[in-house]
Amino acid sequence: MGVSLLTLAMRAAPTLPTQPCLRSLLPSLSPLLPSAAPVSGCSASVFGRWGLALLLPVCLDGRRPRASGRRSAGGHPASKGQTRRLNELGRQGREVPVAVTPLTSFGFGVKVDGLQLSSVLDADSLALLQDLFEQYSVLVFKSASLTDDELIGFARAFAAQFPGAELEASEGPAGGRVKKGSSSSTRLIGRIANFDATTGCILTCDDRLLKLRAGNGLWHIDSSFKVMPALASLMVGNVVVPPGSGGETEFASTRVAFNALTPAEQHELDRLLCVHDFRYSLGLTGCSARFLRRLPPARHFLVRHTPAGRSLFAGRHCSHIEGMPLQSGRALIRKINKHVTQERFIYRHSWSAGDLVICDNRSCVHRGRSWRNPDQIKRQISLVKIAEGRNEVASDCRSCRSLLRDMKLRPGPIAEAAALPEEAEAQAMLQAVGWEDLDASEGDGIMYCQQSLLSKTQAKKRECRKKGS
Question: Residue 51 has what pLDDT?
């Protein structure tokens, strides 16, 4: 049998053995560990104490590893004593190591090296990525350098790991406009940039598109305002700023943040229903959009139950909590957003050209960071989103129907909009989702628009509404 080595760098991965697909590999590691560290039933502290890099065999001879009878979260048989094979590498008869390196000390984010994402991955390789995705929330592939077609091909294959999931059309100003007759890649890939893709010219700060994109600098969950929110976001750094100039993307673990709450706090938040509304989040920065009639407010649980545990589901699109007084619910959302985005829960990704980052929107929030001289330096991130195959509220019909009936609300995933916040309340929410970081300071630029400009726009729109009423 042709054998290579899959190196899992476990120096700071305290939760890896809990995932079924990966846990099944541990019995094969006994010969590699000191006698004082038995593998069977081992705890995370064993790996942390020894600081080991686990060496796992990978079949490269084209044969499928024998199933152990246990199935992973994706429904694929988990191998016993062997792990994922790579078809492409097996056909070439080469031995190439695949390394999985933790990016934080709190089990959030891993860097994956060695997978050829531009090639078609087999089911076992995709199942391994699914396990890592669900366990660590953020996967980083340095310098993957995928073309548009390769990105969409990989995204489709990855989406197939999740029942009912499919690629989401990147419609709307925040992801670029969809033109009639445009190719599928144009419809599925959003270009988040500070310049016009046609002319190449950097957009001025009073450009309407940049005002709408300013929200990318605030902590958010992609498409949480939709009935079928984005399960995963795949981001590619096409045009990146020079190293040390800013422009990073930050991810905060809402699962680690939830686990940091007391049991009483967790119990209080579980089963609360929140409403995500794009009209509300645009209203925070004084923007509006004509397409909002196609996006009615969506109902979601404030606490999501995922294969790896519970997580908080808020961010800038979260408008209010049903069954609570409006101001009290919004105060709670602000508190949650501030809690989730503490430094101790954050991984900051510094982009290199061609990087691919995949994030699990069910268990993290993210935002873009400012960079120096944005009126001179371009930045573009391509974005493909995988929509969930279900709405968790609609899927939990029995208990939700009872909750909604008690609150005298209509059943289903579509909710009623609440009033837009007044100026002071809007500013408080903006601060809770990182508004201050949009401001220029110490010569640094800002991501898209100055806070002062947006504040003036916001005030002007409110004045117009008052005159019209």
Answer: 31
C-alpha 123/C-alpha 231 separation (Å) is: 20
Query: Per-residue DSSP letters for 244-277?
Result: TSB--EEEEEHHHHHHTS-HHHHHHHTT-EEEE-
pLDDT at 30: 34
Query: Buried b vs exposed e over 189-206: b needs ≥16 C-beta within 10 Å?
Result: bbbbbbbeeeeeebbebe
Predicted pLDDT at 308: 95
d(CA 228, CA 216): 20
Burial of 55 (0-12, 13-18, 19+ CB in 10 A): middle
Contact between 217 and 329 (Cβ < 8 Å): no
What domains are there in the chain, each with its CATH number?
3-100 (no CATH), 166-468 (3.60.130.10)
346: number of Cβ within 10 Å: 23
Tell which residue, 104, 151, 122, has the closest CA to residue 354.
151
Rounded to whole angstroms, the Cα distance separating 257 from 345 reads 7
Q: Which residues contact residue 11 at a Cβ distance below 8 angstroms, ignoring those fewer than 6 apart?
A: 48, 51, 52, 53, 102
CA distance linking residue 385 with residue 374, whole number of Å: 26
**DSSP assigned state of 9:** E
Low-confidence spans in the chain with pLDDT less than 50 = 1-95, 173-182, 440-469
Asked whether the CA dihedral 370, 311, 83, 124 is positive or negative, the reply is negative
| Cβ proximity of 393 and 303 under 8 Å | no
Burial, 281: exposed, middle or buried (Cβ in 10 Å; 0-12, 13-18, 19+)?
buried
Q: CA distances (Å), 185 to each of 182, 364, 450, in order?
A: 8, 26, 32
The single-letter DSSP state of residue 358 is: E
The answer to whether 156 and 194 have CB atoms below 8 angstroms apart is no
Tell the residue number behind the tokens 């969809």, with chain if given.
178
Which residue has tokens 């980052």?
357
Interatomic CA distance for residues 270 and 396, integer angstroms: 14
